[in-house]
Design goal:
Shape: elongated
Distance between the termini: 42 Å
Largest sheet: 8 strands, mixed
Number of strands: 11
Oligomer: single chain
Length: 193
């Protein structure tokens, strides 16, 4: 389906002592799923034509863990907008766009793909470079561009020690990613008189 597994990257707050260990536990407890990504109208893109990503909002996460007399409760909510990188790792060509969840291609719409691509918040990529064989005398490019969809999470946590509230707060700067792959081709047309 062209979508890879997810991974998590977390920015660490600068805090010392017991609280730092507790917050490290928050990050261990809160496994944040990446968004589900699908590509439309096809899994092969054409240079210059809109490619829609349907990025589904992950479900909120609620979880807790107890360690050595302390308990950590975590509630995480995905935020909008999401960030999408198209994967074109060539000089000055790769693009990052911000878009809304669930703003992909609608095959039941009366709007053309180009008109749908113009909607505010639409999750649309445009590719400038093809993948694969580039012709005689040219080095081949990768068979697929590998891009990503990134979601930032807002995390609220509460730490209790021996049943009494010890600390609570919130964290930003926690992200989950989903990788996607896409082949890009160029359409050649022949004009005859």
């Amino acid at each position: 389906n062209g979508v890879a597994e997810t991974m998590q990257v977390a920015a660490s707050p600068v805090i010392s002592g017991d609280l730092a260990r507790s917050l490290a536990a928050v990050r261990r407890v809160a496994v944040l799923p990446g968004p589900k990504v699908s590509v439309a109208p096809s899994d092969v893109a054409l240079v210059g034509e809109p490619v829609f990503l349907d990025v589904q909002r992950p479900d909120p996460v609620r979880t807790s863990i107890s360690l050595a007399g302390s308990s950590v409760e975590v509630a995480a909510t995905p935020r909008s907008p999401i960030t999408v990188f198209d994967g074109q790792f060539a000089a000055d060509v790769g693009r990052t766009v911000n878009c809304d969840f669930d703003s992909g291609f609608d095959p039941t719409s009366d709007l053309s793909p180009r008109e749908q691509a113009g909607r505010p918040g639409a999750c649309v990529l445009h590719y400038d470079l093809t993948t694969g064989d580039q012709g005689e005398g040219m080095p081949p490019r990768t068979d697929r561009w590998v891009g990503y969809a990134s979601v930032e999470w807002h995390v609220e946590y509460r730490i209790t020690r021996d049943g009494a509230a010890a600390h609570s707060g919130d964290m930003n700067g926690l992200f989950s990613f989903t990788l996607f792959e896409l082949s890009v081709e160029e359409v050649e047309s022949v004009l005859e008189d």
